[in-house]
């Protein structure tokens, strides 16, 4: 059977930049973007055109930031999608390559972050599981100094984004992807967890704040109801635009009431 023609809408670098500006994206600002390429429609030029359009909207003094997470650099004992046989665990821990910000691909965050990660001039932060990549004037200020024992807390790019008055752009993505909410988990009582991962000199285990996006969709619904959030369309994608600082402050209050975790006890894998 012949392949049906694309349904559109047709999105180009120029239309994307123009629609972002109409939504209020400002020249020179910093945007943390969570994205779904397929939500946009038919994009002429694919992810490259989307990144170009974002950079056009931000201008030469702006900065584009994306999550470039690598959750697969973790203990195979906690893998679920899919799990691996227990008899493989020891070999995997021994053989897994350590994180290298230049060559380790992102995973589970979509094709746009991977495109930004490999963009000329892109910089990437140092955390082996929850890194961010940035392109633009403030890239080094944002991704530099990401502590390797602080996934998404005070010594991560999220705190820098908050202090720099950055905004979040949900480009066809839902609130369940909003990493800014995780910064709030570091500011309220939260359990700690042992995290295993490959290190520069072999397998290592660090103690981290336990993070989870459980109920972030509900949190986002209430946040949008109670706080100013710019809503609109880019191509076919639903878009939200709001300050990082607003999201973090609201999440601190909401999580403490609706999803308290201070009594939770977490045990590391055997």
Structural class: alpha/beta
Can you summarize the main beta sheet? 7 strands, mixed
Which strand order spans the largest sheet, edge to edge or round the barrel? 5-6-4-2-7-11-10
Strand/helix succession = EHEEHEHHEEHHEHEEHEEH
Low-confidence runs: none
Helix share of residues?
25-40%
Number of helices: 9
What is the distance, rounded to the nearest whole angstrom, between the alpha carbons of the first and last residues?
Answer: 52 Å
| Bulk shape | globular
- Give the rounded overall mean pLDDT: 95
Q: Approximately what portion of the residues adopt beta-strand conformation?
A: 15-25%
Radius of gyration: 19 Å
Number of strands: 11
Record keyword descriptors for this entry.
270 residues; alpha/beta; two-stranded parallel sheet; 11 strands
Structural overview:
The longest helix is centred in the last third of the chain and has 15 residues, at 244-258. Helices cover 30% and strands 20% of the residues. It has nine helices and eleven strands. A hairpin with a 2-residue loop joins strand 8 and strand 9 (202-209). The strands form three sheets. The protein has a seven-stranded mixed beta sheet, with helices on both faces. The radius of gyration is 19 Å and the shape is globular. The model has no long low-confidence stretch (mean pLDDT 95). The N and C termini lie far apart (52 Å). By secondary structure, it is α/β, with parallel strands linked by helices.
